[in-house]
């Protein structure tokens, strides 16, 4: 069950020209990781400060940029032979920071307990995937509610003002995704 993550190869192919241009200019993959975090912060600010539906355009554009940078940083590192363990660490820290920063945009719009619950739940699938990789299993990404689906849901909230339902779906869907990944890893590591 990969959700929208199944589109990643298609999306990466669409970004190949951008990746080639970045490689020619000598752009660092770490710069792209940082740009993804900055894009997430911009999306959070737009979500927090602009009313629905005015927030949807900047939120959607900035989250699309966040996803593009998340795709480009590792691909650029591989394409240019600049993969490092520190870069991998920075990539993971940047992804988690971006996830949490985007959800922080809900703080002026929803109760702290709900935003905190959604934020904590949203990190669970990644922690499980990382723990599985540390145990020697292949890295498991995707849905049913992965990073791409969370970004889409945030855009839905920006368009509609449905803050509480979106946060509840993010929280519950993230826990379900963590459970799906954990069950898959449990079977994978038993072999």
Could you please describe the fold and organization of this structure?
- This protein is mostly helical and 191 residues long.
- It is built from 8 helices and no strands.
- The protein has helices at 8-14, 16-24, 29-49, 56-79, 85-104, 112-134, 147-160, 163-190.
- The longest helix is centred in the C-terminal third of the chain and has 28 residues, at 163-190.
- The radius of gyration is 17 Å and the shape is globular.
Layout: helices, strands, pairs:
Elements: H1 8-14, H2 16-24, H3 29-49, H4 56-79, H5 85-104, H6 112-134, H7 147-160, H8 163-190
Helix pairs in contact: 2-4, 3-4, 3-5, 4-5, 4-7, 5-6, 6-8, 7-8
- Shape, principal axes of CA atoms: globular
Strand content: under 5%
Mean pLDDT: 94
Number of strands: 0
Tell me the helix content: over 70%
Number of helices: 8
Order of helices and strands: HHHHHHHH
Tell me the distance between the termini: 20 Å
Which parts are unreliable, with pLDDT below 50 for 5 consecutive residues or more?
none
- Rg, Å, rounded: 17 Å
Structural class: mainly alpha
Main sheet attributes: strand count, strand direction, barrel closure? none
């Amino acid at each position: 069950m990969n959700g929208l993550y199944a589109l990643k190869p298609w999306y990466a192919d669409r970004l190949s020209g951008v990746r080639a241009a970045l490689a020619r200019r000598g752009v660092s993959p770490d710069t792209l990781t940082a740009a993804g975090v900055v894009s997430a912060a911009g999306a959070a600010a737009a979500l927090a400060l602009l009313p629905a539906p005015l927030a949807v355009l900047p939120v959607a554009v900035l989250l699309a940029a966040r996803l593009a940078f998340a795709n480009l940083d590792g691909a650029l590192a591989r394409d240019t032979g600049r993969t490092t363990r520190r870069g991998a660490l920075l990539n993971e820290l940047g992804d988690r920071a971006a996830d949490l920063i985007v959800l922080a945009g809900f703080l002026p719009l929803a109760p702290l307990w709900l935003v905190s619950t959604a934020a904590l739940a949203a990190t669970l699938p990644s922690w499980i995937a990382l723990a599985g990789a540390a145990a020697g299993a292949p890295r498991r990404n995707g849905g049913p509610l992965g990073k791409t689906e969370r970004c889409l849901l945030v855009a839905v909230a920006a368009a509609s003002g449905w803050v509480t339902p979106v946060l509840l779906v993010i929280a519950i869907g993230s826990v379900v995704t963590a459970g799906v990944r954990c069950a898959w890893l449990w079977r994978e590591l038993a072999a």
